[in-house]
Amino acid sequence: MNEQQPRLLVLGAGTAGTMVANHVRRRLPHWQVTVVAPTDVHDYQPGYLFIPFGMNSPEQIRRSAAAQLHDGVTVVTGEVDLVDADGQAVQLVDGTRLDYDRLVIATGTTPRPDQTPGMEGPHWHREVGEFYTREGAIALRDQLATFEGGRLVMHTCELPIKCPVAPLEFTFLADDWLRQHGLRDRTELVFVTPLDGAFTKPVAARELGHALEERGIVVETDFMVESVDGERRVLTSYDEREVPFDLLVTVPVNMGADFVGRSGLGDELNYVTVDKHTLQFAPRPGAAPHPEIFAVGDAANLPTSKAGSVAHFSVEVLVGNLVDLDRGRPMSHSFDGHANCFVESGHGKALLLDFNYETEPLTGTFPLAGVGPLQLLKESRLNHLSKLAFRHVYWNALLPGRPLGLPSAMSMAGKHPE
Amino acid sequence: MPTTTINGQQVEVNDEGFLVDPSVWNEELGAELARLIGITMTDAHWAPIRFLREDYAVMGETPTLRRVQTQTAIPVRDLFGLFPGKPAKKMAYVAGLPKPKGCV
């Protein structure tokens, strides 16, 4: 390692990558920080959900990726081909080779419609829609604009997915939107999930299951999709159940970046295998250790939600550990899996979930300095307003690395254990 | 934890009936667990179950359906045929392993 100016290479300039680069730049100013990103686009991804309903315009959620990075951070535009972990270098598709002393992989997770037969046919981004990309969200807005009723099916292929509450939010918002447009009584709203309930954690699944039931939403559980037939407009499961639709909103299989798999750093879904507390690369049995490699945010195989809040909290832990290592100390920061998610429930309200590796989402209140207690697992107007306000917080405080008053470790204050 | 007698063997199980200690498992016990959920084991059933046991011993966690498919080349569709409805959960149950890591 270059003792004077260690080289940190960050792959990805989304929420996690941008935060890592900015925090390290501030706390370890003697490091050379380089970020590799495929384009100069940084989208506020929670905003995708609102585009189909006209609650956000596509322009409102997009900014320059480079502009979110502090001065002194070098930006390289390019696509990663391979991590040469033994050689401590990253090879880009255009042939560029970037050496590093420490590598942080923050290339997130990507919807992969190619993984499900029939999904990408001529009906893709038409009757078979999605809202996990900006173009998909815009296409879905246009589909809804001409929707006249029928079967509207919200479907998830396989877990894990980015923002596991988003399919529920879409369903609640669609219910509200259909009512406002006088279409709800002409629409059968169906929620199709590979899980055995509305959500992954029992208390939240119960509360959110009630919310679906109250709205007259049909729930189809344990549905593992085998194929999509856009022509016949049916989803077929491996156990030969069929779900017909007029408009399908699907969440394709999510996968980490292909170079992670090619480089031998990932699991079956190309998520980097890491120690869930330190975020340091943890090789699978028999593979070589590479203690200079870390992964954060959605790119890591952390057993918690793939969500912006996890990216945020895990980055704070990772950077604390990078500082420890820089000072010659053992890593002293430990990530607890903390996730904190607002769930839009329609009618200008939202619920809040707060949980970690050990504690599932519970009911109660969440203390937030300057705003007051927010209701956990219960709909409130204040939760909705907090979610809307977050876009401003994201650009102006979160990405630049200003303190938000949200501790990275989960707290039990205000929670009601069952 | 409740204790139950399966095939003349006293074993600890959790609320859902999964074995608490994977090390007490053997194939006779596996066949009996399968019978309890209405499955008669054949060679086709044993192939993924043996993979689950071997993989768990190395990796320390129950493999997902996707991993079973990529590592054994048994298509997911066939796993649904062998262990109808909820193959991931049923295979873990028969193999005496924890439920595959809940998706989060």
TrEMBL record, chain A:
GO terms for molecular function: oxidoreductase activity. Pfam families: Pyr_redox_2 (PF07992). InterPro entries: FAD/NAD-bd_sf, FAD/NAD-binding_dom, SQRD. It comes from the Bacteria. Residues 7-121 form the FAD/NAD(P)-binding domain. This is NAD(P)/FAD-dependent oxidoreductase. The lineage of its organism: Bacteria, Bacillati, Actinomycetota, Actinomycetes, Propionibacteriales.
Automatic annotation (TrEMBL), chain B:
One of its GO terms (cellular component) is cytoplasm. Belongs to the DsrC/TusE family. Gene3D superfamilies: 3.30.1420.10, DsrC-like protein, C-terminal domain. GO terms for biological process: tRNA wobble position uridine thiolation. The active site is at 103 (cysteine persulfide intermediate). One of its GO terms (molecular function) is sulfur carrier activity. This is TusE/DsrC/DsvC family sulfur relay protein. Keywords: Cytoplasm. It is found in: Cytoplasm. PANTHER family: SULFURTRANSFERASE TUSE.
